[in-house]
Amino acid sequence: MALAAVTAASLSGCASLTAQPTVSTAGMPGELEAIHAAAFTRDQAVFWVSSNGCTSKSDLIPIVSIQGGNAVITLRRIDEDKCHQKLAEGVQVKWSFEELGLQPGSPVSVNNPYQLPQT
Questions:
Q1: How many helices (H) and strands (E) does the chain have?
Q2: CB within 8 Å of 61: residues ≥ 6 apart
Q3: Among 66, 70, 22, 16, residue whose Cα is nearest residue 40
Q4: Residue 72's CB: how many other CB atoms inside 10 A?
Q5: pTM to 2 decimals?
Q6: Residue 95, phi then psi, degrees to nearest 5
Q7: Based on C-alpha coordinates, what's the Rg of the chain?
Q8: DSSP run (H or E) holding 47
Q9: Signal sequence span per UniProt (predicted)?
Q10: Regarding predicted confidence, which is higher, 94 or 6?
Q11: pLDDT score for 32
Protein backbone atom coordinates (compact mmCIF):
# COMPACT_ATOMS: atom_id res chain seq x y z
CA MET A 1 0.00 0.00 0.00
CA ALA A 2 2.84 2.40 0.80
CA LEU A 3 4.33 1.61 -2.60
CA ALA A 4 0.96 2.43 -4.17
CA ALA A 5 0.99 5.83 -2.47
CA VAL A 6 4.49 6.61 -3.69
CA THR A 7 3.68 5.39 -7.20
CA ALA A 8 0.42 7.33 -7.33
CA ALA A 9 2.11 10.47 -6.06
CA SER A 10 4.87 10.18 -8.63
CA LEU A 11 2.28 9.90 -11.42
CA SER A 12 0.55 13.08 -10.35
CA GLY A 13 2.16 16.36 -11.21
CA CYS A 14 0.07 18.24 -8.67
CA ALA A 15 0.66 16.19 -5.50
CA SER A 16 3.10 17.15 -2.82
CA LEU A 17 3.95 14.48 -0.27
CA THR A 18 7.51 15.53 0.54
CA ALA A 19 6.97 18.18 3.20
CA GLN A 20 4.18 18.09 5.75
CA PRO A 21 2.24 21.38 5.66
CA THR A 22 1.83 23.23 8.92
CA VAL A 23 -1.87 24.00 8.91
CA SER A 24 -3.42 24.34 12.37
CA THR A 25 -6.20 21.82 12.95
CA ALA A 26 -7.55 23.62 16.03
CA GLY A 27 -11.26 24.29 15.78
CA MET A 28 -11.82 21.86 12.91
CA PRO A 29 -14.72 19.41 13.26
CA GLY A 30 -14.17 15.75 14.15
CA GLU A 31 -10.83 14.04 14.69
CA LEU A 32 -7.70 14.23 12.57
CA GLU A 33 -7.62 11.00 10.50
CA ALA A 34 -4.38 9.10 10.00
CA ILE A 35 -4.28 7.97 6.36
CA HIS A 36 -2.63 4.97 4.70
CA ALA A 37 -2.10 6.75 1.39
CA ALA A 38 -3.22 9.67 -0.74
CA ALA A 39 -3.13 10.19 -4.48
CA PHE A 40 -4.21 13.03 -6.74
CA THR A 41 -5.14 13.15 -10.39
CA ARG A 42 -5.83 16.29 -12.35
CA ASP A 43 -9.32 16.52 -10.84
CA GLN A 44 -9.63 14.00 -8.00
CA ALA A 45 -8.28 13.40 -4.48
CA VAL A 46 -8.15 9.78 -3.31
CA PHE A 47 -7.41 8.65 0.25
CA TRP A 48 -7.05 5.22 1.87
CA VAL A 49 -8.12 5.19 5.53
CA SER A 50 -8.57 2.59 8.27
CA SER A 51 -11.92 0.89 8.62
CA ASN A 52 -13.57 -1.47 11.06
CA GLY A 53 -15.94 -2.48 8.27
CA CYS A 54 -18.39 0.42 8.13
CA THR A 55 -16.39 3.48 7.06
CA SER A 56 -17.91 5.42 4.19
CA LYS A 57 -17.20 8.75 2.53
CA SER A 58 -19.91 10.41 4.65
CA ASP A 59 -17.92 9.55 7.82
CA LEU A 60 -15.10 11.85 6.73
CA ILE A 61 -14.85 15.49 5.80
CA PRO A 62 -12.05 17.04 3.75
CA ILE A 63 -11.19 20.55 4.86
CA VAL A 64 -9.38 22.59 2.23
CA SER A 65 -7.23 25.56 3.14
CA ILE A 66 -4.89 27.60 0.99
CA GLN A 67 -1.28 28.01 2.10
CA GLY A 68 1.25 29.80 -0.05
CA GLY A 69 -1.10 29.62 -3.03
CA ASN A 70 -1.44 25.82 -2.79
CA ALA A 71 -4.39 23.78 -1.53
CA VAL A 72 -3.86 21.79 1.66
CA ILE A 73 -6.39 19.05 2.46
CA THR A 74 -6.96 17.98 6.05
CA LEU A 75 -9.09 14.85 6.29
CA ARG A 76 -11.20 14.67 9.47
CA ARG A 77 -13.34 11.78 10.76
CA ILE A 78 -16.74 13.04 11.88
CA ASP A 79 -18.39 9.64 12.51
CA GLU A 80 -16.76 6.75 14.33
CA ASP A 81 -16.70 3.33 12.64
CA LYS A 82 -18.21 1.08 15.33
CA CYS A 83 -18.20 -2.15 13.31
CA HIS A 84 -15.98 -5.07 14.29
CA GLN A 85 -14.75 -6.41 10.94
CA LYS A 86 -11.37 -4.68 10.61
CA LEU A 87 -10.33 -4.27 6.97
CA ALA A 88 -6.54 -4.74 6.80
CA GLU A 89 -6.14 -2.52 3.73
CA GLY A 90 -8.70 0.04 4.89
CA VAL A 91 -11.09 1.68 2.42
CA GLN A 92 -10.72 4.11 -0.42
CA VAL A 93 -12.61 7.42 -0.36
CA LYS A 94 -12.43 10.08 -3.04
CA TRP A 95 -13.59 13.58 -3.81
CA SER A 96 -13.57 15.43 -7.09
CA PHE A 97 -11.75 18.74 -7.16
CA GLU A 98 -15.13 20.30 -7.93
CA GLU A 99 -16.49 18.90 -4.62
CA LEU A 100 -13.44 20.37 -2.87
CA GLY A 101 -13.85 23.78 -4.51
CA LEU A 102 -10.58 23.40 -6.46
CA GLN A 103 -9.72 23.98 -10.08
CA PRO A 104 -8.52 20.92 -12.06
CA GLY A 105 -4.75 20.58 -11.82
CA SER A 106 -4.47 22.63 -8.63
CA PRO A 107 -1.34 21.90 -6.56
CA VAL A 108 -2.43 19.88 -3.51
CA SER A 109 -0.78 18.58 -0.35
CA VAL A 110 -2.05 16.63 2.65
CA ASN A 111 -2.09 17.76 6.28
CA ASN A 112 -2.67 14.29 7.80
CA PRO A 113 -0.24 11.88 9.43
CA TYR A 114 0.48 8.68 7.51
CA GLN A 115 -0.05 5.29 9.12
CA LEU A 116 0.68 1.90 7.57
CA PRO A 117 -2.31 -0.47 7.41
CA GLN A 118 -2.68 -2.72 10.46
CA THR A 119 -2.22 -6.40 9.59
A1: 2, 8
A2: 29, 30, 75, 76, 78
A3: 16
A4: 20
A5: 0.75
A6: -130, 140
A7: 14
A8: strand 44-51
A9: 1-19
A10: 94
A11: 95
